[in-house]
């Protein structure tokens, strides 16, 4: 199974890239994590945010692999603890060849992306900076996989 982490935004600081890659490379080929970056349109003082969000959403939808199971990261989504996420991962591994995890712009995901999603996942009740979300998702996917493998990384 392949997991696409499709994020609006690019040109992250080195610490973000290193943090993300550290966890992504720990996953085996049978549960690989691939980062897909969608360019964030330049916001200015008089920017048409609704149009930008719509255009970024269209590019996000185009990046989703055919037949992928789509999960929108959304503050109104379902909050999963580690064991619940590992159960989700196990289910995805049994039923989907590809899972696409969608992360929107600072304004959130476009409505079309939310409509396309079969599930919504809330990482936290806290507001997280978008660069940090990449690292948190990668670490949590690795942790969920380690639970399924009875790997000692996760200690409950």
Automatic annotation (TrEMBL):
Enzyme Commission no: 2.1.1.177
Chief location bin: cytoplasm
Extent of the signal sequence: none
Record keyword Cytoplasm present: yes
Cell compartments where the protein resides: Cytoplasm
A Pfam family that the UniProt record links to this protein: SPOUT_MTase
Catalysis performed (reactions): pseudouridine(1915) in 23S rRNA + S-adenosyl-L-methionine = N(3)-methylpseudouridine(1915) in 23S rRNA + S-adenosyl-L-homocysteine + H(+)
Binding sites annotated in the UniProt record for S-adenosyl-L-methionine: 73, 104, 123-128
Domain of life (superkingdom): Bacteria
UniProt enzyme class: transferase
Alphabetical UniProt keywords: Cytoplasm, Methyltransferase, rRNA processing, S-adenosyl-L-methionine, Transferase
Molecular-function annotations in GO: rRNA (pseudouridine-N3-)-methyltransferase activity
A GO cellular-component term linked to this record: cytoplasm
HAMAP family in the cross-refs: 23SrRNA_methyltr_H (MF_00658)
Function: Specifically methylates the pseudouridine at position 1915 (m3Psi1915) in 23S rRNA.
Family, as annotated: Belongs to the RNA methyltransferase RlmH family.
Assembly with partners or alone: Homodimer.
Protein name: Ribosomal RNA large subunit methyltransferase H
